[in-house]
Amino acid sequence: MFEKLRKKWNVNLPQLILILCVFAIGGSFTGYIGKILMPLLGISNSILWTVVYLFLVTIIWPVMVLIVSIPFGQFPFFRHYISRLLGRLKINR
Question: Alpha-carbon dihedral of residues 23, 60, 32, 80, nearest 10 degrees?
Answer without folding.
Answer: 10
